[in-house]
Amino acid sequence: MLSGFMSAFRTPDLRKKLLFTLGIIAVYRLGVAVPTPGIDYNAVQQCLTVTGGTTGAFAILNLFTGGALQHLSIFALGIMPYITASIIVQLLRVLIPRFETLYREGAEGQAKLTQYTRYITIGFAVLQSASYVTLARTGQFFPGCSYDIVPDDSWLRIAIMIITMTAGTVLIMWFGERISERGVGNGMSLLIFTSIAAGFPKVFGIVYAAGWGTLFAFSLVTVAVIAGVVFVEQSQRRIPVQYAKRVVGRRTLGGSSTYIPLKINMAGVIPVIFAASLLSLPTVILQFSGSNPPNWVVWMRDNIASSTSPWHIGLYILLIVFFAYFYTAITFNPEEVADNMKKYGGFIPGIRPGKPTADFLDYVLSRITAAGSLYLAIVALVPTVMFAVLKLSQSIPLGGTSVLILVGVGLDTVKRIESQLEQRHYEGFLK
Predict the structure, then answer these.
(1) What share of the chain has pLDDT > 90, as a percent?
(2) Which residue(s) pair with 22 in the sheet?
(3) Which of 66, 92, 186, 221 has its CA 20 to 30 A from that of 150?
(4) In this structure, are residues 98 and 106 in contact, taking their beta carbons and an 8 Å threshold?
(5) Which residues contact 394 (CB under 8 A, 6 or more apart)?
(6) Architecture field, domain 1-197
(7) What are the CA-CA distances from residue 186 to residues 118, 168, 179, 272 (Å)?
(8) Where are the transmembrane segments (predicted)?
(9) Residue 357 near residue 348 (C-beta atoms within 8 A)
(10) Burial class for 214, CB neighbours closer than 10 Å (0-12, 13-18, 19+)
């Protein structure tokens, strides 16, 4: 692998792409430390000392922003508004025929969908930044902290803060697009990868403070989870496809054999993020319900929001399974695949083209998704079980999802660099 990296840096154009990507990531991490105008940075630090950091839903969002949210920096919103907008645009393809038509039009249609995603991202950024500024003004961003985070709450100052946070999200979106265009790998994924990886040293420091035995057990479980994630993410069910021979003029086309690779985890990390977001709603409702919340809100906080509650664990598993099937049905259409195979003379051995092929693909996909959804649930619940056994606080929100993102983005980036090396007749990373 080391020789592969050396070969990558010896290639001029690939070296430029790697250095460009690292430069954008460095600028992004620098912006995480720049506070938003109007925020009292010293007061924020005092509140972090008193409360120990953000909790509940804010802790999950803070993980994906690399610590920018709890410091209320210019990048406090992170890339989450863009991810939310992208998911909504994908869902609208099912509900609005116009979006599906644009998706099938090729490059021009994709450009329009990307433009719609940008507009929706700006809308979400404005709403989220206004919510964070309101929570900071009312003291609910850090419950139990009496320091005044926003000394000047005039309308002009608040408007400047909202515009600054929104502009920060737009800048992050631009960073991601530039990495995808001129760098290496998927820009948005690499920025999330960087944000999550930036918080791991602090986590290992907390575990180290609990003792060497706890650190060893924590490291052992982490390595085992990473190995399991790598194994499952690389696993696939290969459906054999045979193309019949066709005579076009004087040429004979077809007659080749290939396969359709169906991954065990077709939905990726999206089901876990959706499930965790829904289960964090009781905490958000509680923060807006005042000092004397209704009994039903207290019950949700103690049973649904508590990560060790049987209600929470059961709902978490059910939501992950549901969203795994739902998102897989959106991203993979068996009927469309069967029609394309029939159009080009392809068929699955032993299965008739057309509807029988679509039914067979749907049959296989439903059973693969069952295994994939259970795998996601196990990985997502490993941190909760580990913290309970090791008697640690919930220091790593959404730890299973963090591992999924880190491993998935890492594998994808390495594969892209390796493919570019192989195009230049160099050896890849993995021999």
Answers:
(1) 9
(2) none
(3) 66
(4) no
(5) 59, 307, 384, 387
(6) Orthogonal Bundle (1.10)
(7) 17, 19, 7, 20
(8) 72-96, 116-135, 155-176, 188-209, 215-232, 269-290, 310-332, 368-390, 396-414
(9) yes
(10) middle
User: So where are the chain's domains?
Assistant: 1-197
Torsion of CA 327, 263, 197, 169, to 10 degrees: -40
Burial of 358 from C-beta contacts in 10 A (0-12 / 13-18 / 19+): buried
**What local confidence, expressed as pLDDT, does residue 389 receive?**
72
- DSSP string of 196-256, one letter each residue: HHHTHHHHHHHHHHT-HHHHHHHHHHHHHHHHHHHHHHH-EEEEEEEE--EEETTEEE---
> Residue 149 corresponds to which tokens in the numbers above?
């985070």
**How far, CA to CA in Å, does 315 sit from each of 95, 194, 274, 352?**
26, 30, 12, 40
- Which residues, 6 or more positions from 108, have their beta carbon under 8 angstroms from its beta carbon? none
How big is the CA angle at 245 (ends 243 and 251), to the nearest 5 degrees? 130
Q: Which residues, in sequence order, are CB contacts of 240 under 8 Å at separation 6+?
A: 257, 258, 259, 348, 349
Q: Minimum mean pLDDT among 84-88, 179-183, 205-209, 334-338: which range?
A: 205-209
The pair of structure tokens assigned to 381 is 């619940």
- Edge to edge, the sheet with strand 346-347 lists 257-263, 236-243, 346-347
Strand pairing class (346-347; 236-243): antiparallel
**Are 262 and 364 in contact, with CB atoms under 8 Å apart?**
yes
What's this model's pTM, rounded to 2 decimal places? 0.79
